[in-house]
Design goal:
By secondary structure, this protein is an all-beta fold. The chain has one domain: Ribosomal protein L33 (Rubrerythrin, domain 2), CATH 2.20.28. Strands 2-1-4-3 form a 4-stranded antiparallel sheet, with no helix packed on it. A hairpin with a 4-residue loop joins strand 3 and strand 4. The radius of gyration is 11 Å and the shape is elongated. The two termini are 18 Å apart.
Length: 48
């Protein structure tokens, strides 16, 4: 089963993306994606 997570921009804290991850993942997911509010690529982290 996969769980649904929301990705939050590290700079402006806006919630931009939604994705699914495997259930057994223990560490928080991070990826570099485009933030429309900051208008540049930033690190997005999984919300709690």
């Amino acid at each position: 089963m996969r769980k649904k997570v929301i990705l939050i921009c590290e700079n402006c804290l806006s919630r931009n993306y939604e994705t699914t991850l495997p259930e057994g993942l223990t560490s928080r997911f991070e990826i570099k994606k485009y933030c429309p509010k900051c208008k540049r690529h930033t690190i997005h982290k999984e919300s709690k």
